[in-house]
Design brief:
Layout: E1 2-5, E2 11-24, E3 54-58, H1 59-65, H2 70-77, E4 81-82, E5 99-100, E6 108-112, E7 115-116, E8 146-152, H3 157-160, E9 167-173, E10 180-195, E11 198-220, E12 224-235, E13 260-273, E14 278-294, E15 317-335, E16 338-356, E17 371-391, E18 400-417, H4 420-423, E19 447-463, E20 468-479, E21 483-495, E22 500-511, H5 515-519, E23 522-528, E24 531-538, H6 543-547, E25 556-569, E26 572-586, E27 592-594, H7 601-606
Parallel strand pairs: 1-24, 6-9
Antiparallel strand pairs: 1-27, 2-26, 3-8, 4-5, 6-7, 8-9, 10-11, 11-12, 12-13, 13-14, 14-15, 15-16, 16-17, 17-18, 18-19, 19-20, 20-21, 21-22, 22-25, 23-24, 25-26
Length: about 600
């Protein structure tokens, strides 16, 4: 067997790039600037007035875009955000990662109404972008539940905490007291594929997708609100494998393309004023997502096929059953000159794996054809306190905004073994053990771990003169498993005229290895040099990894430099931003390392 080690690399990486945005408003449209809350603690600023680059995408733009997935819509409307679409990559077929500024998916912090969101339990281990990462799943939030999305395209770990190396995506929920809406859509792919063996091309009509969503606002006492959202979507699979069984009816062929995915979501967002200065708020959301992706086909003459079960070969299907939960409760108000926001949030992501249309070859003709392959669970609880106040400094043109606060976070990660037949060796003819396509988690893979994190931050945004704005922030974090660190940021903006401004920032970032990255271990099937190969993935601290000289993971540390300009004249708006991000101790999935049952002690150890 070949094996590969998870997350061994501690590398230094540097990215240098620039981005440009330009847009104009129609002549007959009155432009109202959207006020933002991401990237600045000062109220009342638009996206073009902030010291940091921020994109704002409202719900109308998301709806008009027509995508069935939030991440896909954002990648179309915000050029810095990308949403790759990998195929035949196990759970990543159903939990697709999004990236910001070309960095790993888990180097972008996702907020929900300004509060830290929870990651998915999944680790991207196959051919997906961001291999070895464990990130927030944007598609767990229905588009209909959103008022807008704010994307901060700049390192912000000092302001918002660990993970914000590439930037921050803040999902702002809809706050409707009245009104409502409903949408439905139907679509499919009508594709013409030309290949070397079929130059005239062939047509594929597949990937039929249905969506339906509804939202409604309700008025609560004291001018409060309750907004309810329901969302359903079903995407049928696509196939671009270009293999046909037309001349060999009954012979199993492969499937390469989008997985079949069905999701059902409900979301509630509420706010209730208690008096003129204090109010309660909260939200709750749940999504059920079921997916089915195809593994690589096992032909009839495959050594691990049992002809009495599948005389024509078989195509294993990997199923995912995902439950995602979001809850929050908080209060905010004013106490003298201070504005206070205290909250508790909870998030959980559970993934159950199954395999069907498969077999465990080591069980021989008595093998089951469907299996429960185990599960992964991630949970996060966050308690936060945020305080802001205006601060009069006589030498400055305007009052500064002082913000400070504290946060406590508890995380948990769990792997549960699958049924015995999904992973065990039945001893039949020395054939491969475990369910073909996705061998289940073994009891030796099981973990149930937790960790705690405490953080303190301070942020001072000052309008030094009518033209110069400077924002300085610092954050202290302490992890129960990785110790403490301090990050900082200084950003500035100078308005030469009402139409033209320059802005820039220097910041440091920090990202502690996720629990998923530290403890995930499993066996899967990958194609290596054209051959389906059973591949083991191990944490850096495992005995196998240690034999190869692996060291325990260290936190990623980054330095972010950016420089940009803002120009606006009438309906024309232009922003250009250049940035460089240096990252040390970058956590990635290692290359495939081949072992042998014979040879040196090291080779035998990794076999």
């Amino acid at each position: 067997m070949r094996s590969k080690l998870l997350l061994l690399a501690a590398a230094s990486a540097s990215a240098l790039a620039f981005s440009a945005h330009a847009q104009t408003a129609p002549d007959d449209q009155t432009t109202v600037e959207e006020l933002v809350v991401t990237g600045t603690r000062t109220a009342g600023r638009s996206r073009l007035d902030t010291v940091s680059p921020v994109d704002v995408v409202d719900s109308k733009a998301l709806t008009r875009q027509g995508s069935t997935e939030l991440a896909q819509a954002l990648s179309t409307l915000a050029p810095s955000l990308n949403f790759p679409r990998p195929s035949a990559v196990d759970g990543t077929d159903s939990v697709r990662p999004a990236t910001l500024r070309g960095l790993a998916p888990d180097q972008t912090l996702v907020l929900l109404n300004g509060k830290r969101g929870h990651a998915a339990a999944l680790v991207n281990i196959n051919g997906a972008v961001g291999r070895g990462s464990a990130a927030f799943d944007l598609n767990t939030i229905p588009t209909a539940a959103l008022d807008r999305v704010e994307i901060l395209r700049e390192g912000a770990a000092a302001q918002y905490g660990s993970d914000a190396i590439a930037g921050v995506v803040n999902l702002r929920l809809r706050e409707a007291r009245t009104g409502g809406g409903a949408t439905a859509s139907y679509g499919l792919y009508d594709t013409e594929v030309k290949t070397a063996r079929d130059t005239d091309g062939r047509k594929a009509h597949d990937g039929v997708t249905y969506t339906a969503s509804i939202w409604q606002g309700f008025t609560l006492p004291n001018d409060g609100f309750l907004t309810l959202t329901g969302d359903w979507s079903k995407r049928n699979p696509t196939n671009r494998s270009d293999v046909s069984s037309a001349f060999s009816p009954g012979v199993v062929t492969g499937r390469y393309g989008d997985a079949e995915v069905e999701s059902k979501s409900i979301f509630a967002n509420a706010g209730l004023p208690l008096n003129e200065t204090w109010s309660l708020y909260g939200w709750a959301g749940y999504q059920k997502r079921e997916g089915e992706s195809a593994a690589f086909p096992r032909l009839a003459n495959n050594a691990n096929n049992i002809a009495s079960i599948y005389p024509n070969g078989f195509l294993p299907k990997i199923t995912t059953d995902i439950d995602d939960y979001n809850f929050a409760f908080g209060t905010k108000g004013e106490l003298g000159a201070y504005t206070i926001d205290a909250s508790v949030t909870y998030g959980e992501n559970d993934i159950d794996y199954g395999v069907k249309d498969s077999l465990n070859a080591s069980y021989g003709p008595t093998s089951p054809t469907s299996f429960y392959a185990g599960s992964m669970k991630y949970r996060q609880t966050v308690a936060s306190l945020d305080i802001t106040r205006p601060l009069e400094i006589a030498a400055f043109a305007q009052p500064s905004t002082l913000a400070f606060g504290a946060e406590y976070r508890k995380e948990g990660y769990e792997i549960v073994a699958g049924e015995t037949a999904s992973w065990a060796n039945g001893g039949y003819n020395n054939l491969a053990a475990g369910a073909q396509g996705f061998p289940g988690f073994r009891p030796s893979n099981e973990v149930d771990v937790t960790r705690d994190n405490y953080s303190l931050y301070i942020d001072l945004d000052s309008q030094i003169t009518d033209k110069l704005d400077i924002d300085v922030a610092a954050r202290f974090e302490d992890y129960s498993d990785f110790g403490s660190t301090t990050t900082g940021k200084i950003a500035a903006r100078y308005d030469f005229t009402d139409s033209f401004a320059l802005r820039g920032a220097v910041s440091t970032g920090f990202r502690a290895p996720a629990l998923q990255q530290q403890y995930f271990t499993a066996t899967s099937t990958n194609i290596i040099s054209g051959v389906a190969t059973e591949v083991g993935t191990f944490p850096a601290t495992s005995a196998v990894s240690q034999v190869l000289g692996a060291k325990a993971l260290e936190p990623e540390e980054s330095t972010n430099y950016s420089l940009g300009l803002v120009y606006r004249r009438g309906p024309l708006e232009v922003t250009v931003d250049a940035y460089q991000i240096d990252i040390d101790n970058r956590i990635v999935l290692s290359e495939n390392i081949q072992g042998s049952a014979t040879g040196t002690a090291t080779q035998q150890a990794i076999y």
